[in-house]
């Protein structure tokens, strides 16, 4: 019997009507990514346009997790809306940088910063690059 080393936990908060903060803890991989996808779809159904993904508690993310983040980004930017990744661990940030996800999806330090970026409007090619 196989037991996940870091089972996924997702806490959902609504800081304001158009935004949702999803605090994710545990490994975000092929075994757990669909759980995040279900939460995102549910919040889209409820009219949320801005998705704040706090992944400070995610020690590992594979391509399944990256794909969920990118798919959500593609879906909400037409609303218009956005996906904002908050405080990825160094290992997850490295994977995001290597795969180019960090070029597409804004990475911020806090939920407050994510909301400020969301309020600033659609980011163009000259948006503040994250180091």
Automatic annotation (TrEMBL):
Residues 17-118 form the STAS domain. Gene3D superfamilies: STAS domain (3.30.750.24). PANTHER family: ANTI-SIGMA FACTOR ANTAGONIST TM_1081-RELATED, ANTI-SIGMA FACTOR ANTAGONIST TM_1081-RELATED-RELATED. InterPro entries: Anti-sigma_ant, STAS_dom, STAS_dom_sf. One of its GO terms (molecular function) is anti-sigma factor antagonist activity. Belongs to the anti-sigma-factor antagonist family. It holds the Pfam family STAS. This is Anti-sigma factor antagonist.
């Amino acid at each position: 019997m196989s037991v996940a080393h870091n089972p996924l936990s997702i806490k959902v908060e609504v800081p304001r009507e158009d935004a949702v903060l999803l605090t994710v803890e545990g490994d975000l991989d092929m075994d757990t990514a669909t759980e995040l996808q279900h939460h995102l779809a549910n919040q889209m159904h409820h009219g949320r346009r801005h998705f704040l993904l706090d992944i400070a508690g995610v020690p590992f993310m594979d391509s399944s997790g990256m794909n969920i983040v990118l798919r959500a980004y593609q879906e909400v930017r037409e609303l218009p809306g956005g996906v904002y990744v908050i405080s990825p661990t160094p290992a997850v940030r490295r994977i995001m940088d290597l795969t180019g996800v960090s070029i597409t999806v804004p990475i911020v330090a806090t939920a407050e910063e994510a909301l400020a970026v969301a309020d600033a409007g659609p980011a163009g090619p000259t948006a503040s690059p994250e180091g």
